[in-house]
Structure of Sidoreflexin:
Amino acid sequence: MSGELSLNINIKEPRWDQGTFMGRAQHFFMVTDPRNVLLSSETLEEARVIVQDYRAGVVKPGLTEDELWRAKYVYDSAFHPDTGEKMFVIGRMSAQVPMNMSITGCMLTFYRTTPAVVFWQWVNQSFNAVVNYTNRSGDAPMTVNQLGAAYVSATTGAVVTALGLKSLASRLPPIVSRFVPFAAVAAANCINIPFMRQRELKYGIPVTDENDNRLGESASAAKQAIVQVVVSRIGMAVPAMAIPPVIMNALEKRAFMKRFPILNAPVQVGLVGLCLVFATPLCCALFPQKSSMSVSSLEPDLQERIRQISPHTTTVYFNKGL
């Protein structure tokens, strides 16, 4: 051993127990920490070297356990868990709060005209497309044509959904109209995520045994992973898009807000940000990142292959994505 720190620390897994909601919440508060977006390339590279050296059995002299875990979470915040490549900065989970608070705040503020709805839904779904691709599960790349077709399909579907809901809400009370962006985002997530991850649905995602030995690829696992991500994403949007409209509806009746209407957007963005700081990690924690399913739920040919190469395996594991 080339250092003082023990090599028995398992940094392949999160620091906290992922079998409990609180353990997963602590993990995702670290992963989604917005401050990680501000880290320099040098800091990210240093964390990558520490993590990869430690996995290879090399310990940096003087490295403490807390510093190792900090490096692991900095590394996880910027590098894809399956491919190891550095992720596009706005697609990282640490960028979720600052990006979503800005976009969602504007969606909730500028919802009254059709051009505004189209523009902000397009911006939101373009951002979501980047996030969904960046945080996909598996290590198989998408071609430019596949990526383009998925983006156009997802964004078009989301904008059409938003316009349809806006038209429907125009005949309802004003407070209901404020919730059109949330309904559109919820519906759009059901469209955008499967489209951006359609390659996984077609070819499957890697599944492993409990020792991380790869057993094959499963489309059934991909379906479960995508459903869990859709539920989490909609959950993230609930507080940020349901609470601020109620508060703003009350505030806009006050003389102060009538006198300074320019404050509408900043106040709305601030409220959304406050909600997202907590909603993002807590909703990511609804399901374990390393998800699992029974071998009996996999495709018949994959079940047969697993019985041949690993007959004692009854449960497989996979990265569900984020």
